[in-house]
Amino acid sequence: MLPKTRILSGLRQWDQQAPWWLTLFLGLACVGFGAVIVSRPFTSLLMLRLLIVVLLAVSSAADLVWASRSQSRRWTAVAGSGWLSAALAVYLYPGLALGALAAVVGVALVVGGLVRVLVVLRGDGEDRVAQLLGALTVVIFGALALVWRDVTLLAIAVGFGARTLLFGCVQVVKAWQAARGGRTELKEPPSCRRRLRGRPRTAAMACSLVVALGLLAVSITLHRASPTPDAFYRPPPSVPAAPGALLRSEPFTQAVPKNARAWRILYTTTREDSVPAVASGIVLTARNPPAGLHPVIAWAHGTTGESSSCAPTLLQKPFAAGALPALDQIIANGWTLVATDYTGLGTAGPHPYLIGQGEARSVLDAVRAARHLAEVHVSHQTVVWGHSQGGHAALWTGQIQPAYAPDVPLAGVAALAPASDLIGLVANLNTVPGGSVFASYVVTAYSQTYPEVSFNRLIRPEAQAQVRGYAGRCLSEPEMLISIMSSLMSGERIFRGDPTRGTAGARLRQNTPTGYIQAPLLIAQGESDGLILPTVQRAFVQHACQTGDTIDYRTYPGRNHVGVVAPGSPLIPELLRWTQDRANGASPHNICK
């Protein structure tokens, strides 16, 4: 007898003659192992690889067992050998990145599932319906593993964990039937009893296929919903070197109130290192504004993402996405809104996420560009508003305006829940649900902007694919659901060590807005904010007072990070009055005196 035949024969004897209690033990172990994997993927890359090797080996054994009692032994043995080859590849090449690891697993799932489909369609074996459903499920999970390369942990957990759990359930049922019959070998029952016995397995496989199809439908829907920059965001062949030049404009209608009109603009600006760049934005004004020139609200939006597809001008809710407050009141007061996307959002990257000079230059140059719109009469009186990331941008706008854009004088700067202390913010992200998503934006922006900040040195190897995936999704778009699921399942620990030390820490300190702001400053903070901590904000205000800033600091009990600018917040009417006072030249309140 050939060695392969003897192996298959031995596996068949094990499958048919193993004691029921041993089959039960194997089944319960697989059920428990699969449940743990599905509910909590792995925090260790070594554990992840070991787990994948074990699961691939289990899949190989399962196919070889099937081959031992299948007429299509050759094809089924090929599938089992394929699983085994994949297990050996993962084991022998520990340097595989998670993206490559996902590819190995995905290909193994797809090939193994297709082989099973081929064998079943040839009419071989019992429970053909259950076998076909299970094979199709494996193929779909393999495709998901290939598509969701950045959420490898989730794809592997769902695919292999569910497969192991179902395999364990089958073994438990088999052991229970053997124990009830008082025998260790399962004899072939009558055809009607065989059909009854196969129904639970068929139902289980049908459920797994429904889950797989559901995940596939979700994946397709989410990918289709993701916006893509169009030709508008590509600069013309000849671009002026001076910042603030209007390159292109067109009417903009997405989510614009009926009593307003808006334009999408493309303009020149500069990056932090003064390299010329282009940025996009929105200019909005009332259809019938009151007579005279009215102040400009230079809006610096909050976090929308790090990818170029996350520009507010591309999103379904361009104003709500960045948490702009009081849009209706801005229009009613006749103010002109100039809202930058920042460089790298819509236009070519990198996006200066929490990089002060890059953000602030986009804000100031958007105001300059808006002055060239023939349809709008823009006042030279500007008040800057910004929330969260935009609050950070607003503070930096106040800092650099006198030197960078003296032609854009500021009547005031309103920083709402601003990221005023980057060391404190990044240190707090490990305690915030979904904090790893914001951390991915920071790490991606800093590693792309500063050569000495290394992405691979900052992020744990097992988290790198996930972090790149997070950074590629927009905060307010449906695809963010994938990042949230992955973040909750895999935990929040993504850093190798302390990101506030070393070269990254030095750059975070460099981009913390500690400089003098000449314009009157309003700082608004929700006392229930878990992202920007009130204690951190108070420390910033105390330091700003020592710097000589003129500060009106207001706090709001019961308001969290977004709630402080949400409709109904007591901040809204106060912000509007404070802005009107700045336009009227009233003396600002100063808590530093």
Can you put this structure into words, describing what you see?
By secondary structure, the chain is an alpha/beta fold. The chain contains 19 helices and 9 strands. The radius of gyration is 30 Å and the shape is elongated.
Outline:
This protein is an alpha/beta fold and about 600 residues long. About 50% of the residues lie in helices and about 10% in strands. The model is unreliable at about 185-195 (pLDDT under 50).
Residue-averaged pLDDT: 81
What helical percentage do the residues reach?
A: 40-55%
What class do helices, strands and sheet pairing give?
alpha/beta
Radius of gyration based on Cα positions:
30 Å
The arrangement of helices and strands along the chain is HHHHHHHHEEEEHEHEHEHHHHHHEHEH
Strand content: 5-15%
Give the low-confidence spans: 183-197
Q: What is the first-to-last residue Cα distance?
A: 96 Å
Sketch the major β-sheet: 9 strands, mixed
Strand order of the largest sheet: 1-2-3-5-4-6-7-8-9
Number of DSSP-assigned strands: 9
Question: Please, what is the oligomeric state?
Answer: single chain
Outline: elongated
- The DSSP helix count reads 19
Q: What topology does this entry show?
A:
Elements (H helix, E strand, L loop, with lengths): L2 H15 L2 H20 L5 H24 L4 H20 L5 H24 L6 H20 L4 H30 L9 H35 L20 E7 L7 E11 L5 E11 L9 E5 L26 H6 L3 E5 L15 H15 L11 E6 L1 H16 L5 E7 L5 H7 L6 H15 L5 H4 L5 H8 L8 H11 L11 H9 L10 E6 L7 H14 L3 E6 L14 H14 L9
Parallel strand pairs: 4-5, 4-6, 6-7, 7-8, 8-9
Antiparallel strand pairs: 1-2, 2-3, 3-5
